Amino acid sequence: MKKPSIALLALLFPLALSLPAQSTKPIPSTDGYPLNTCVVSGKSLAKKSKTIEVDGRTVKVCCGKCAKKVRKKTSTYLKKIDAAIIAQQSPNYPLSNCPISGKKLGKMGKPKNLILEGQLVKLCCGGCAKKAKAKSKTILAMIHKEAYLKQIKGHENGKGMTCVVSHKPADRKGTAKLIMHGNTLVAVCCKNCLKKFMADPNKYLPGNMMGMKKTPRSRPAEKKEHDHGDHQHGDQKKGHDHG
Description:
3 domains, 8 helices
């Protein structure tokens, strides 16, 4: 067997430098859809949902009637979905510069929010939108990678993270599983929690975006407070009746 020539090695060396030191499995992702309720009726999508494509966008509704409404007033309902995406993905948006111009976000006024394939992209101005759409795959891959790297820092293999479903340490049995939902990295502790999370991701995100802290278990206190509030409303109503 002939040894590779010096010329061939010279060609292969730059390629070797560009490859990762060791192959890693891609982090599994959800579809990133930001709502767990129908954008039209507000009903839960957990038990029954219908997925439709409108203007190149994915929309989940509870029934055929709502699907017709979305198709009839597409811009109205897409704006609601966009608002949900912006609210959910802004806290963990990883880039501080515009991916097109390279300029610092905010330097040219309020950044322009653009939604590409259900993902939030922040631009320095509206003029970069057309170029961003043309380079959507590259930009989205960069955002996904940077979001993961920023949030995994110090938490490799789920270390120190809390399961967003059970609220227990995700790595307590060495079985932590990491998932990206939009641009948010979360951890679950077992296959059962993974199944629950993947079935309804948005159910577990509010108030516990990174799963770093336990969600306060204060339901009894809240119930008591609400009951007290009900009595107050009752007294006020009674007072009005006397008046």
